[in-house]
Amino acid sequence: MVDKPQFAMVLTLSPSSESLEALLGTLDAYRQAMEILDGTKGANLVALHEEAYEEIRSRTGLPSRMVRSSRARSPILR
Q1: What's the CA angle centered on 53, arms 47 and 54, to 5 degrees?
Q2: Which terminal CB of the chain, N or C, has fewer other CB atoms within 10 Å?
Q3: How many C-beta atoms surround the C-beta of residue 34 within 10 A?
Q4: Within a 10 A sphere around the Cβ of 69, how many other Cβ atoms?
Q5: Are the C-beta atoms of 49 and 33 separated by less than 8 Å?
Q6: Distance between CA atoms of 42 and 52, rounded to whole angstroms?
Q7: Helix (H) or strand (E) holding 5
Q8: Are the beta carbons of 35 and 61 closer than 8 angstroms?
């Protein structure tokens, strides 16, 4: 068995005010997506998709790839 390396890296980001605003907007939309998923009863990815995908897309404006990513990280599936 190979030991997993233990290290951390710290990066200091200096986004422009426009980039920071876009990043914070995306994080807020992702947070909204997680709140929508918290209100679902889906037990698997198919059920979550049917119940929440369109609502997340319309309410948050997130691209499809990020909606699929939020589904995969939903605590409902864990």
Answers
A1: 130
A2: N
A3: 14
A4: 13
A5: no
A6: 9
A7: none
A8: no
Q: How far is CA 60 from the centre of its chain?
A: 11
Owner of token pair 């997680």: 34
pLDDT one-digit tens code per residue, 37-72: 888 887 777 888 888 889 999 999 999 888 887 766
Which tokens belong to 52?
A: 């929440």
d(CA 16, CA 38): 33
Q: Which residues contact 41 (CB under 8 A, 6 or more apart)?
A: 47, 51
- Reported as a single tens digit per residue, the pLDDT across 12-21 is 989 999 999 9
Tokens representing 42 are 């889906």
Please tell me the distance from the alpha carbon of residue 48 to that of residue 75, in angstroms, as a whole number.
11
Residue 26, classified by CB atoms within 10 Å of its CB into exposed (0-12), middle (13-18) or buried (19+), is middle
